[in-house]
Design goal:
Layout lengths: L1 H38 L1 E6 L3 H12 L3 E8 L3 H5 L4 E4 L1 H9 L10 E3 L2 E5 H14 L5 E6 L5 H5 L9 E4 L7 H4 L6 E16 L11 E6 L10 H6 L7 E7 L3 E9 L4 H8 L3 H15 L9 H4 L3 E2 L4 E8 L3 E4 L4 E5 L4 E4 L4
Helix pairs in contact: 2-5
Length: about 350
Amino acid sequence: EAEDRFRVLAYDTALSTVVAVAVYVALKAGLDGVRRWRARISVLVVGSGPVGLTAALVAVRSGKVLQLTVLDERNRSALLCRPQQIALDPRSVDFLLGLGVDFDNMEGCWQEEHFFTRIGVFQEYLLSILEQKKQQVDVRVQLGTKFSQDYLRRIPAEEWPRVIVVADGSCGDSCSVLGLSSDYTVESCHAYGANASIERLDQRQVPTPEIRAHSLYFDLSAYGVEALREHRNPAAKPGFHLKIYGTFRNRYMALACPASDARMVRFLRHTANSSLMKNIFHQSFNAYKTDIEPRLNDVTLYHMQCSRRLFEIQLSHRRVSAAYIEGDNVAVTVEGEAARVLNFDT
């Protein structure tokens, strides 16, 4: 009888211990869940370009976001039909792979661990990933909506974002809406450059690897400039650098050289002959283009737009790249083209 009572007591004690541990674990898990839920914040991303959408994807995958809103005043069709090409270097590729980006399912091409694709294709892919995350996070993509004081006033107090990422490009004015300075400070790159672009409607929007050429010299003897003499001079500055990029339909070219007092550079900086730079880009493209695309001729050359002369390349930085709005307890990060090269694509 005593042994039975002892057995029942032991059983009741063990059962009580198990129940107590289970209640403790469940209570702790519940409290941890509440803490994690309360620690999650709402995030507003202004701008749905490559940087804005990448920032949104980082926020979603962090597990610390309760609500994510992506805002852009452009509608979806205007956003995704952009013909410009984006080049992702190996560091960017590794970073995006960690965010779940599958480059095998994205239109583009590889060259030396760099990935090239159209900006519209890249944006469409990131938007599709964000839309797949709606089951985990309250994701709201509001295209065709301008970020303004009226928009902020319509946000309910309990839904006000705690983090705002401004990634609306170099021409955006979202900073002024938040009362932040949108001024830039400008500095020289100690280089000169020129740009050109051409659209060929008979070609496809196929991403292509970049083409680069260095130490280029141009025969301008017909214009009274003898470059060869300077080229043979060991003290002469290095020649021009050329880059050809973009899709087969929308081709872009950038020409740059270090700042120098060489005769050719002086001449190209001050020339009044508007056809000179066009001829330089024309001959350079035909010399370095890919084998599978057609040469530029007099007909296609008519559609080329380019700089009239060499200009000084300048780099600009936003004076304010981060801020904290104390009254509203909001952290603001200014990203995207916070640093940009004025009038020069590179």
